[in-house]
Known about the structure:
The complex is a heterodimer of chains A (316) and B (274).
Chain A: H1 2-25, H2 34-42, H3 50-59, H4 66-78, H5 92-127, H6 132-146, H7 149-163, H8 179-205, H9 208-215, H10 220-232, H11 234-257, H12 263-272, H13 276-304, H14 306-315
Helix pairs in contact in A: 1-13, 2-3, 5-6, 5-8, 5-11, 6-8, 7-8, 8-10, 8-11, 11-12, 11-13, 12-13, 13-14
Chain B: H1 6-23, H2 25-28, H3 60-96, H4 98-112, H5 116-127, H6 131-142, H7 144-158, H8 161-168, H9 173-181, H10 186-209, H11 221-228, H12 237-264, H13 266-273
Amino acid sequence: MKGYVARRLVLAVPTLIGLVVLAFTLIVLAPGDPAEELARRRAVGGFATEEDIGRARVELRLDRPYHVQLAEWTGRAAQGDLGRSFSNGRPVAAELAQRLPATAQLAAAALVLTLLAAIPLGALAATRHNTLTDQLLRIGALAGASLPGFFLAYLLIVVFATTLHLLPVAGRTEPTSFILPALTLAAGPTAVLSRLVRASLLEVLGEEFIRAARARGIGEVRLVLRHALPNALIPVVTVLGVLVAHLLAGAVIVETIFAWPGVGKLAVDAIFQRDYTMLQGVVLFVGAVFVLLNLAVDLSYAFIDPRVRVSARAAR
Amino acid sequence: MLWRDRTALAGLVIVAVAVAGAVLAPWLAPAPPDTVNVADRFAGPSLSHPLGTDNLGRDTLSRLLFGAQLSLSTAVLTTLAITLIGIAVGLVSGYYGGLVDAAIMRVVDVLLALPRLVLALAITGILGVGLVNLIIAIVAVGWADYSRVVRGLVLGLRERPFVEGARAVGASPARIMIRHVAPNLVGQVIVLSTLDLGAILLTLSGLSFLGLGVRPPTPEWGSMLAEGKNFLDRAPQLMLWPGLAISLVVLGFNLLGDGMRDLLDPRFRDRRRS
Lengths: 316, 274
């Protein structure tokens, strides 16, 4: 067990190093000279002198060799300093920290919605295996997975906001503001996850211990809920990481549509403003959150599923 | 075969109809996609405009058909580029092994461990907004999946007698990889690509919707939806048609991909039947 945890922790290190190198190196892709760009944005009337450009170059530390830049950038990033925004001069890290709660709230709401919908629907499909219910759920899942978030968002807005006036169209001002964006965000993952729950539960339901339990006269409902489902949900834990990736990716579009002041909206704004430092910060920040979440998922998996512990011991 | 799988067949039909619409757009479209006629804006369905007109009086059906050209071709092109790069990298990684393999696989690990859309967005932002840069960004972060799968397959194929035979008669590594190993990967890779097509179409149209790729007035489904959303109260159908078009085609690709996977992988075939 300890070995597994240690090995998994060590494995995360090269990924984090790769992430840092990648996030930093992004600026190399910038066409033209970032220092000139920054100086021009600051200068009155958009005309930067050689001196301005020189100063911007020193400030961005573009006057040093690549590896020195990388090392310095990494060091400062480790201390929470991601530089200043190209477009408004504010510290990138502060901007990210300010936007994080909104995205976290939205993603958490969508995750809860996904789990609340996908597990019962998947279980229903598995227990009604090969019936009309199963078929309808299959079609529903296929449709859900094919519906673009940016389309679904407007369908929901038309129905619940502009026609029924039940929920706000956009923004994050009312307590109910999160409902439509969270529903939009949860639709795709719910479709995918419900299929996984169904497949996993079907597999477990075919196993010996279920037949034994059934032979002991345990009722169907209790059999599914107490004996089969907990085992069937183990694979669900492994895909939580992928699920969160979907939610983060979806948040970019959903936050923009619903004017939700989160990290995704921040990223889209940064793209249009060609805010290089902000984009570096977003990649590093979202990437790090993602790597750590996946680490947490993998570690929790070992606690939940004794088989992982055993195979980890055997592998040693 | 594929013909007996009704869902896959449905997928094939949907995709075929969309492709036919795109190819035949110049002949099927009732009007040029960019002819503005402000006097006739927000028109309802009629014989001359089967799906009505938009805020500038342009024919919606024509824009949908011509939009299919760009939406489908960019999705196919992007997927093709991702697939070819993924195969090439995976072949080299799996065939040579050792340090080359280790180095490539670390890069793949990093790419697979990150939320790729966010990375693609950052690349687009730094390169500058536009369709070409958007495709470059999506390709740059998308090939890793294929490389890993192909590498795994190559590791298995590398030791097979026909590869050793080719090596024994002095074939060059490039020739072995292309002539002997690659053909054995085709089936699996096509399934992966087909399953990916829908996701790529969603990503491309989603980012065009945000204004990062194709931009109005060029007809493309994502950008049409972005234009249509401004008239949500007055003419919700302007958003509805491109949205339905994207959803249907993505559904088609997904059905087709699922069917092909079932066909090639007996495990899935048995599971569905059971």
